[in-house]
Write a structure and sequence with these properties.
Length: about 350
């Protein structure tokens, strides 16, 4: 952010980030404390200063230009170093033919493995190993779309062989790899349309978990999403899961135990994980979500990932609003979004 961007940003949002010690804003600005002459990260654990003694700066250089010095406790200038280290590690992971050991990545950055793991996870939401797995899975999906052949795609994605791919994807991919490119071929999806206080709701699930939750949609929409899957109207076996989903919608915030079978790019999945971390009754801005996944400049992409969520409410994309507090958009209408937020209020 430039100083002009900081000035344009609602200072109360900055102050809220400081009071919450929100790590998502580290690197976005620094907090200058005029009474002590120091500047800190937004997440600094030191005792909060009085509001009238605080001024916000775009970065450490701007704060030093105002005569302030860096806090020795939170080391705000290390944020840039951390970001450079993470970006270098990502480039190394993307360019490597084989998985890189944590110790190797940490040594390149000049950090201990434990510290580097924390730094990397803080910026990306994933450990280096999990990031590498997500990257290969993303490449797998792209390769499947290009080639249509699972075996070819496995090698193009960087796996040394089929056994490595299936070992890495066990427990992560709900559908078999071939199903992603073949419109759900070979997969059975059970579904139901049920009345709720928010309107008609479509719920669909594989044997791994819920793969679609939407409003004002019918089975024809599901057929377009998975044209080659076997779509079966839910029976007694589906009833228990359906009841849990309905309860989670009627009382949003109560469905964290419900299994999901969703799939996206590495970035989308990082955004969705961050959405699931938002406590019921709270909201985040699109900018905060982008920063939390280590991509503070990708606000528009974070919004797109938010909109690509296939399981409304269970992944609570309704908890993301604009920086000015207005609702922004919602696939199923702002009335439903507002109602969900109202139901979550303490």
């Amino acid at each position: 952010m430039t100083q002009a961007m900081i000035e344009a940003l609602d200072e109360e949002e900055c102050w809220t980030a400081v009071r919450l010690r929100d790590r998502a804003f580290d690197g976005g600005f620094v907090t200058g404390v005029l009474s002590t002459g120091i500047y800190c990260r937004p997440s600094c654990a030191a005792r909060h200063p009085r509001r009238e003694n605080v001024r916000f700066f775009s970065d450490g250089a701007a704060a030093r230009g105002a005569g302030l010095r860096p806090c020795l406790r939170c080391c705000p200038d290390d944020v840039a170093r951390d970001e450079r280290a993470v970006l270098a590690a990502i480039a190394a992971i993307r360019g490597a033919e084989q998985p890189l050991a944590l110790g190797n990545l940490a040594a390149r950055a000049g950090y201990s493995p434990t510290h580097f793991q924390r730094v990397f996870a803080r910026h990306t939401g994933l450990s280096p190993a999990a990031y590498a797995r997500a990257l290969r899975a993303e490449r797998m999906t792209e390769a499947l779309s290009d080639t249509g052949r699972v075996t070819d795609a496995i090698y193009e994605a960087g796996f040394s062989g089929p056994s490595r791919f299936y070992a890495a994807s066990e427990g992560r991919l709900g559908m078999a790899a071939s199903a992603w490119v073949n419109g759900g071929q070979g997969v059975t999806i059970r579904w139901a349309v049920v009345a709720t206080s928010l309107g008609q709701m479509l719920v669909a699930a594989t044997d791994k978990g819920v793969c679609r939750l939407s409003f004002a949609e019918g089975p024809e929409a599901l057929a377009r999403r998975f044209p080659k899957a076997e779509l079966v109207e839910g029976g007694e076996d589906f009833a228990a899961l359906l009841a849990q989903v309905v309860a989670a919608v009627e009382t949003p915030g109560s469905g964290s135990h419900i299994p999901l079978d969703v799939r996206g790019t590495a970035f989308q999945e990082a955004v969705w994980r961050e959405l699931q971390r938002i406590p019921p009754g709270e909201t985040r801005s699109y900018a905060q979500i982008a920063a939390a996944v280590g991509k503070p400049g990708a606000v528009r992409a974070a919004g797109s990932a938010n909109g690509a969520n296939a399981v409304a409410v269970l992944i609570p994309c309704h908890r993301v609003v604009r920086s000015d507090g207005s609702l922004g958009g919602y696939a199923y209408g702002l009335a439903i979004k507002q109602e969900l937020l109202d139901r979550e209020k303490p």
